[in-house]
Amino acid sequence: MTTLTAPPRSPSASTGTRRRRLLPRPKGGAFYLMVIPALALFLLFHTFPVLQGIYYSLTNYAGYGRYHYVGLDNYLNLFQDNRIWDSYLFTFQFAVVATVLTNLIALAVALGLNGRIRFRNTLRGVFFIPNVLAILVVGYVFNYFFSNSLPYIAQKLGIGALSTSILADPDLAWVGVVILAVWQAVAFNIIIYLAGLQTVPEELYEAATLDGAGAWQRFRSVTLPLIGPFVTINMVLAMRNFLQVFDHITALTQGGPGTSTTSVAYLIYTGGLNGGEYAYQTANAVVFFLCIVVISIFQLRVLQRREGSV
Known about the structure:
Layout: H1 11-22, H2 28-56, H3 73-78, H4 82-113, H5 120-132, H6 135-157, H7 173-197, H8 202-210, H9 215-226, H10 228-243, H11 247-252, H12 264-274, H13 278-309
């Protein structure tokens, strides 16, 4: 008589079957209970205000009282308002200068902190401190420095150009805002660049050194191409953040002297909430949002194309 025997089950198969029996099957109700509250909060506090703002931008709403539909009048008036043009010009100039300076300084510091130096971990923590400080508090400290300490030191040293507060000079006030913004933003960018530098294999540096490459050649041919994605991240985030500059101006100049340091975000706040231009500045905010989106996409395309060509 012939006896048929089944092939023995492999341990992995039996273990997998037992594990599937032990693990409870995900229930659809639990999934929706986790997703729906988060989605509802997002719609309530993000999507709904955006749609409401777009609606108000098509009216003459002043922030209170009655209002009526005016169509695209607010948007058309934006292009005829010198305040708007001046604020956009200042904002874009400030953002470009601050973005370039921040990334150059952050990359230089990150290269130093990535080397074999004493107290490296301690220094990394010290350089990150500006990122965790409240910018308004630090801004008032810088305000005192620019308005009192720096002029006093300049007078003692006989430097006439700095003997008065640069924040009171329409031609120099923006420099103070840039210094504060760069000082605070460099800390975060250093961390991103350090993360990128630590992904570069040491063997590549050793091979480049054996080929006779100097420090600059190693940086240009090895380091920079390999940290390209990190450069892209820092450039895009820095530009976006600087375009929205607000706290720095509030603490240092409040848009002055005159309107020389009035950014778009600061103008939207002062005009919309304090100036009775709620609908008008809401239209300004919509246009500014679109500008930031377009600039960010353009940066990503250009920098990513450069990554591929390096």
